[in-house]
Amino acid sequence: MGLIRAVMDTAFWKGRQKRKPLGPRWPLLLFHVDTGGCGGCGMELQAMTCLPYDMQGAGFGFVTSPRSADVLLVTGPLTRTMAPVLQAAWEAMPDPKGLISVGACALDGGLFGENYAVMGGLERRVSVDLAIAGCPPSPQEILNGLCALLGSAAQGKEKETPSRG
Amino acid sequence: MEDVCRLSARVAAGCSVAHQVAFCQAVENACGQNVGGEIALLRVALLEMERLFQHLYTLAALARLAGAHLVASHCMALREKLVAEAAPVTGSRLLMDVCIPGGLSVRETAQMAQLCTQLYEIGQQAYPQLVLLWREYPGLSALLAGVGQVQADDLERIGLDGPVARAAGWDCDGRRIMPAYDGLWRYTSGRQGGTAEDRALLLLDEMEESLRILDLASARIGLAPAANHALSVHDGEGTGLVEGPWGGVLYWVRLAHGRVAEAFCRKPETAALLVFEQVLPTHVAEDVELLACSLGVNAAALDG
Ligand code: SF4
């Protein structure tokens, strides 16, 4: 817990705008870290990058290095082995930066209780800019959540998809 | 009991039905109860849907890692079409929480036969084009043929079954011993060279086989009532075995005082990691991700 407190320097979050203003770097670049769990949220993120979801048209792109990312996307409950990885990714990102949790696990640990290996969700440790609920949320729900962060409507009208997994 | 079942659905996304069915079978065996042919048949349909979705996801990942982005996007687009068709009926895109001890918890059980037919039709229409694209995409086969060659003897010694073993010539498939697959599954001989290319082509073959099983199952579903059984939970032990997308998933449970007192899960990803470590030294760094993907190494399943 102390490690994560140190990682996510809470002082940084004070006075931050709730909504990240659109900067000159368009699209908004996302860096994904899967910190544990079943991998379902990661699969839905992968599906979001493909047809028929127009992620790039909505203004988002994934990057493979945190150094060029605007937002850290976290899926899965925080496991002790992944905590240093998350810390390193966060520290490598340039300011200003944001944190988004995708799925129940990343926010509050979901079905995975705290134990010797699992530290739980992010909500009691750091300030999260946006929490996208679901176990897992569907690709359209993730895209809608990201668009809501920027205050824009989701692109495209997709078939209603169930959110229980 | 329900919580453990929900947890079993989340050991490894993509193999969720396999874990749920194996866990439910173990509990039902511990209680000495049989769920009946119709529920078993509906579970087979869900298992084959999952195999279809997961094989497409794996093929897309392999193609992407090999630089064949067009092929990857074809695989993902077809997967998404099938998943979007199935989700309103099953209630879950990744087929989570569709099984409970004693039965099923899909949203629209009455529409399962129709769903099987729809998935078969969508799949059959797109399949020949996908296979052609895979086989003829410049450089894809040649790149995969040089990655991750494994021998059947080594796999048997380490205990890695599933498509990795079948593509190396080890004839192992848990569906052979599952009574619910009688008249649905048949042994299909495929590539046996043991490379990533053989595994990819075997996944394509298995997709066709799953589509065929869905088609056959659609004609049988609905011939008998599909009522869930109220389990009378006794103290005892039971096991359940299912052939998941990456191999055999086995559960052992011990029930006591109406609860799951202990559980053990055997999954293929544990052995996949050992095989990965064994063949890793013969590969260059650029191929490591491709190698892990083609062997079914899955960190989520390993920490589950
Ligand atoms: S929120 Fe659900 S789907 Fe996502 S990682 Fe956790 S258990 Fe898996």
TrEMBL record, chain A:
Alphabetized GO MF terms: 4 iron, 4 sulfur cluster binding; metal ion binding
Location of the NADH:ubiquinone oxidoreductase-like 20kDa subunit domain: 38-148
UniProt key word DNA-binding: no
InterPro entries named in the record: Complex_I_20kDa-like (IPR052375), NADH_UbQ_OxRdtase-like_20kDa (IPR006137)
Keyword Acyltransferase: no
SUPFAM superfamilies in the record: HydA/Nqo6-like (SSF56770)
The entry's keywords: 4Fe-4S, Cell membrane, Iron, Iron-sulfur, Membrane, Metal-binding, Ubiquinone
Names of the cofactor(s): [4Fe-4S] cluster
Family indicated by similarity: Belongs to the complex I 20 kDa subunit family.
Protein name: NADH-ubiquinone oxidoreductase
